[in-house]
Automatic annotation (TrEMBL):
Keywords: ATP-binding, Kinase, Magnesium, Metal-binding, Nucleotide-binding, Thiamine biosynthesis, Transferase
Source organism phylogeny: Bacteria, Bacillati, Actinomycetota, Actinomycetes, Micrococcales
InterPro entries: Hyethyz_kinase, Ribokinase-like
Binding residue positions for substrate: 62, 210
HAMAP family: Thz_kinase
Pfam families, per the entry: HK
GO molecular function: ATP binding; hydroxyethylthiazole kinase activity; magnesium ion binding
Record-given protein name: Hydroxyethylthiazole kinase
Length: 280
């Protein structure tokens, strides 16, 4: 059996294995259901995020004004709330969307971009986290800052390691009943009881703006398919990072990586997942 796998990173959460077959099944479900993913995301990555969701087989919709966001969250398959450029209108829209998603039972993902030193988004992230997102996704410094440990990273980038964020991630997961995903060279996914490390990936993902933010949207797409949310988030991370490996082999630098990544996401299937997971 090939696995995307892991070992425990702290004394508190047990290591869990997610078989590559489960990842492949989740990918097939996303393709079959073409989930409608509502994105309230930052202006830097909105276009890249829509293209990445389309390449995967999902249907993106950037519905982020206060008068429409709540209405749409009631019919969307999943919602992404990303705090990268949280203008006042969008902040209001986020609160409507979160309320409506919670009422409708729609899965939603919180991405606390650059939380820590910046006051407006930090307060908003804490408020939204208390509304119990299905998943919280961030880099190590963002997850630590949201958990109340450390002052955040350097702008939108992490200054802490994924290892250093493991305990904060597990504590956050338990506090809010969410799956928490920490990105980095090795991605960590935890629900506070089980922790999985996703070892696939390529550093060139960090040279493309949206490398982290679009991952949150992809997690929303996988959560829309239902089932164990920990497995859904692991599957999203695995498919995404395996596609990055394939794209890195077919590109020469950041410029050619971005379109190669779209092609790799569109082309990846269960066999591709199993082949790479075996190498991880
Ligand atoms: N050093 C690295 N090597 C390989 N993959 C990485 C590395 N750092 C980040 N990644 C990948 O890049 C994506 C974005 O992660 P990251 O840069 O941590 O997010 P953010 O943009 O939120 O800071 C994730 O899929 C992660 O697995
Ligand atoms: C550069 C920047 N500034 C505010 S949001 C944003 C995008 C960050 O996207 P990612 O961290 O996914 O590259
Ligand atoms: Mg980044």
């Amino acid at each position: 059996m090939s696995a995307v796998v892991a070992s425990a990173t702290s004394a508190d959460a047990a290591s869990t294995v997610v078989p590559a077959d489960d990842v492949a099944d989740r990918l097939e479900l996303v393709r079959e259901s073409a989930p409608l993913v509502q994105c309230l995301t930052n202006v830097v990555v909105a276009n890249a995020t829509a293209n990445i969701l389309l390449a995967l087989g999902a249907a993106p919709a950037m519905v982020d004004i206060p008068e429409e966001a709540g209405l749409f969250a009631g019919v969307a398959s999943a919602v992404l709330v990303n705090l990268g450029t949280p203008h006042a209108e969008q902040r209001a829209a986020m609160e409507h969307a979160v309320r409506s998603a919670s009422t409708a039972g729609t899965p939603w993902v919180l991405d606390p971009v650059a939380v820590g030193a910046l006051p407006v988004r930090t307060a908003l992230a804490r408020k939204l986290a208390a509304a119990r997102p299905t998943a919280i996704r961030g880099n190590a410094s963002e997850i630590m800052a949201l958990a109340g440990v450390g002052a955040g990273g350097r702008g939108v980038d992490a200054t802490d390691s994924v290892d250093a964020a493991a305990e904060a991630a597990e504590a956050l997961a338990r506090r809010f009943g969410a799956v928490v995903a920490v990105s980095g060279a090795v991605d960590l996914v935890t629900d506070g009881e089980r922790t999985v490390l996703v070892r696939t990936g390529h550093a060139r993902l960090t040279t493309m703006t949206g490398g982290g933010c679009a991952l949150g949207a992809v997690m929303a797409a996988f959560l829309a398919a239902g089932g164990d949310p920990l497995v859904a988030v692991v599957a999203a991370s695995a498919v995404y990072t395996i596609a990055a490996e394939i794209a890195a082999e077919r590109s020469a630098g950041p410029g050619s990586f971005a379109p190669a990544f779209l092609d790799a996401l569109a082309g990846i299937d269960g066999e591709g997942v199993r082949a790479r997971a075996l190498l991880a």
